[in-house]
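An instance follows:
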Amino acid sequence: MNQPPRLTIAGLRVRGVHLPMQLPLVTGGGTVGIAPLALIDLLTDEGVTGSTYLFCYTPLVLGPVVRMLENLLPLIRGDTVAPLDLDRKLQRQFRLLGAKGPVAMALAGLDMAAWDALARAQGVPLVRLLGSAPRPVPAYNSNGLGLIGPERAAVEALKLTAPGFQAIKVRLGYADAQADAAVVRAVRGAVGDGVTLMSDYNQGLSVAEAVHRLDVLADSGLAWIEEPTGADDHAGHAQIRSRTRLRIQMGENWWGPHDMARCVALGASDLGMPDAMKIGGVTGWMRAAAIADAAALPISSHLFPEVSAHLLAASPTCHWLEYVDWAEPVLREPLKIENGQAVLTEAAGSGIDWDEAAVERYRVA
């Protein structure tokens, strides 16, 4: 039996791009119309390249993240592509500083690229390397549907379901509870009762205001209420959760599995939504999936649909894939969605290959 090659890190190519969003996202924190991505290629002596990307939220962070990744290369050049060993080494390196923000983002990017390289070297999709088989993963369309008012939200909701999605997410946090309820009614009226409707407050409310608004929305049929108050206020979320019938969703701002474990221990959320970048890449996700399994906590993904589809397919409590199309302008083959489900193939790796001409067109760093 042929053994897969032992991969050795030779280099790291990092490029920054600004990608236009087809549907700008309007939240309480402002309008997001550009997706600033750091594109990562982990190069090996054996000629295998692992690729991934990071979503940097704001163009102000893209440059520092690119430089952070470039600065990490001298620490790992010549190392074996062994994600768990790399994680231990780099976590020790930044123990005094703490692995959050751009540092954690960079480490997660290296981890995802390393796992992609290993899967490519073995000629298997990432999901198989993680011990599972490719299977369809239920997906909801999370593009758009920001704070745009009931009339525009109803029109946009129809666009989001048109490709066959049976679930979408609406952002809330209008001037008052009645305005939130009006938007939910408008969207529901447009898409019908057969579509699952999630909601997200993007941390916009106090605990008291969240309790009030969720009382108004109690009979709205929303599948979950995401981060009604500050993401780091686990006790506040636990209080909100104890006073509503609606399910609370947290997780996109868990910085690593330990943060998740603290949140779960406090009973802050009915559901979990790790972010592949913030949770610690593939390595961090698998640790988070074990926590979720032990707690019988359904987990969905936050952003990064290409790699997250593989991670969810290998997770015991797989729930929903959050689908956004933000990286598609620079991908050769976008993630395939059929009948509202992400379709994983037998292609090697996580499915991320660059359209190099597009990368150069959108490149800013």
Summary: The first helix runs from residue 59 to 76. Residues 36 and 60 are 9 Å apart (CA to CA). The chain has a mean pLDDT of 96.
